[in-house]
């Protein structure tokens, strides 16, 4: 079923052009900060099991190989959360799905701290993962729809580095909290923080103006959402528009993601993100354990392991800056390639603590820098009608790479592979990711913010 096409009239204010023309307001910086805090806490909670694992196996007297289901449970939940939340956000709104997801993962993370056996922990981490998986794509989508073109990649990747910072801080926090208060304390922290933040989001986080416009939620709601950015221009506007409103409308946001204009790009985004998460989650899940096996103390393993995530904090802003100035696909591809090389060198440096820590930091800068840029690239690729779905499905399908990485690490360790052999194997997914994203730039490089049609085709829009 279709609805009438909206045609811009005299006095119509183009939302993206308006945002592009204004200096970044305090209102927009508040959105950046809130989205940053959301993904920061997401990062702390996501990384928790990797840092808890050594203490948990010791406390419960279990073999590390039995932790495979625990490591994978939250990741499976993330797949469910990501795949389900995008279509919901494109239909019912970014804010409502985002706030609900924050409360969801906070409540179940807190409940996980009271587990007494592996089965309970697996179940609750699965439920926690549903909330975690829904958070990232919707924070990315909402922020991207409030940012000017000239700073979009920079701001979105800067927000996304909050995830890397959260994962890195998880290591530093666990190094301090677990010896003093036990492994359960990290789960308590990962539950209380999002519950408090959720209350703040209800009051201070706005709904996307572009979503309100495309979904016909009323001109006054759009006006209120945009007014803090430039009150005079918004007050004088008789109507509002975005390029997507000129397109034929259909019922499903998935029709946008899988339309001929986007199909090839969608599949290549999925492949790239999948391979990146294979590397990240194998290292995040098992690096502290591998270091511990090599003779490092519990505290040293947590701190050195966290350097991998901290590296992403250092590089994400630079990658976003470079994407706004150069070919973003080549920038990301180069970082994936460098990440594979750096990871290989990490495997060759075992035994030299200082060199090992330096190379882990470098690998994290390259790998997490590239991966942090992917949601920004996806958000620019898809139009408003399918943006949340496009971003969330890339993240959701990519989570299978996270599951594969965590499982792959357990399998290789079970086969008796060494530290060096495990990290050498990661050259393969790094190379695949680099090649896939460069090909995507060649065959499907359009930017939804700059063009209302692709290859002569009209874009389908969600009703």
Structure report:
The chain is mainly alpha-helical and 463 residues long. It has one domain: Growth Hormone, Chain: A. The protein has 18 helices and six strands. It has helices at residues 15-21, 26-60, 68-92, 94-112, 118-144, 152-181, 184-204, 209-214, 219-226, 231-236, 254-257, 263-293, 298-323, 328-348, 353-381, 384-414, 419-425, 427-443, and strands at residues 12-14, 239-241, 249-250, 453-454, 457-458, 461-462. The strands form three sheets. A two-stranded parallel sheet has the order 1-2. A two-stranded parallel sheet has the order 3-6. Strands 4-5 form a two-stranded antiparallel sheet. Helix 14 (328-348) runs antiparallel to helix 15 and helix 15 runs antiparallel to helix 16. The longest helix has 35 residues, at 26-60. It is globular, with a radius of gyration of 22 Å. Residues 1-8 and 448-463 have low confidence and may be disordered.
Tally of individual domains: 1
Helix count equals 18
Determine the mean pLDDT. 84
Distance between the termini: 9 Å
The named CATH superfamily: MFS general substrate transporter like domains
User: Low-confidence segments, ≥5 residues, pLDDT <50?
Assistant: 1-8, 448-463
State the helical fraction. over 70%
| CATH-assigned fold name | Growth Hormone, Chain: A
Name of the level-1 CATH class? Mainly Alpha
By helix and strand content, what is the structural category?
mainly alpha
Major β-sheet profile: 2 strands, parallel
Count of DSSP E strands?
A: 6
- What's the CATH architecture? Up-down Bundle
- Side by side, the strands of the main sheet go 1-2
Overall shape: it is globular
Organism: Geopseudomonas aromaticivorans
Keywords: Cell inner membrane, Cell membrane, Membrane, Transmembrane, Transmembrane helix, Transport
Subcellular location: Cell inner membrane
Domain Major facilitator superfamily (MFS) profile: 31-448
């Amino acid at each position: 079923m279709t609805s009438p096409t909206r045609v811009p009239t005299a006095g119509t204010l183009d939302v993206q052009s308006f945002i592009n023309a204004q200096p970044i307001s305090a209102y927009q910086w508040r959105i950046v900060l809130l989205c940053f805090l959301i993904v920061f806490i997401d990062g702390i909670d996501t990384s928790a099991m990797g840092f808890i694992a050594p203490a948990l196996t010791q406390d419960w007297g279990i073999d590390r190989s039995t932790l495979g289901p625990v490591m994978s449970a939250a990741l499976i939940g993330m797949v469910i959360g990501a795949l389900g939340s995008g279509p919901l956000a494109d239909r019912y709104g970014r804010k409502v799905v985002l706030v609900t997801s924050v409360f969801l993962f906070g409540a179940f993370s807190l409940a996980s701290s009271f587990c007494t056996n592996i089965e309970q922990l697996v179940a609750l981490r699965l439920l926690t993962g549903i909330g975690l998986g829904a958070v990232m794509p919707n924070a990315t989508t909402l922020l991207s729809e409030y940012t000017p073109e000239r700073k979009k990649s920079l701001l979105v990747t800067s927000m996304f580095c909050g995830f890397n910072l959260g994962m890195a801080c998880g290591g530093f926090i666990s190094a301090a909290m677990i010896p003093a208060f036990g492994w359960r304390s990290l789960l308590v922290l990962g539950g209380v923080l999002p519950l408090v933040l959720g209350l703040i989001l209800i009051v201070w986080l706005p709904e996307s103006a572009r979503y309100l416009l495309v979904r016909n939620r009323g001109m006054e709601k759009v006006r209120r959402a945009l007014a803090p950015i430039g009150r005079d221009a918004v007050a004088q506007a008789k109507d509002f528009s975005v390029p997507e409103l000129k397109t034929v409308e259909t019922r499903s946001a998935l029709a946008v993601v899988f339309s001929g204009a986007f199909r090839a790009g969608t599949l290549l985004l999925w492949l790239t993100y999948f391979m990146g998460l294979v590397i990240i989650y194998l290292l995040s899940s098992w690096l502290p354990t591998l270091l511990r096996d090599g003779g490092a103390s519990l505290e040293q393993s947590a701190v050195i392991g966290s350097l991998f995530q901290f590296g992403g904090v250092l590089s994400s802003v630079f990658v976003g800056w470079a994407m706004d100035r150069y070919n973003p696909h080549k920038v990301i591809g180069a970082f994936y390639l460098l990440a594979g090389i750096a990871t290989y060198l990490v495997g060759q440096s075992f035994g030299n603590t200082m060199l090992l820590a330096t190379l882990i930091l470098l690998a994290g800068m390259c790998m997490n820098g590239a991966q942090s840029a992917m949601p920004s690239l996806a958000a620019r690729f898809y139009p408003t009608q399918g943006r949340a779905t496009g971003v969330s499905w890339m993240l959701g399908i990519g989570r299978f790479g996270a599951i594969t990485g965590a499982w792959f690490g357990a399998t290789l360790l079970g086969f008796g592979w060494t530290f060096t052999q495990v990290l050498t194997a990661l050259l393969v997914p790094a190379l695949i990711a680099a090649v896939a994203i460069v090909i995507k730039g060649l065959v499907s490089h359009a930017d939804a913010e700059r063009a209302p049609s692709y290859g002569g085709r009209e874009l389908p829009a969600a009703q």
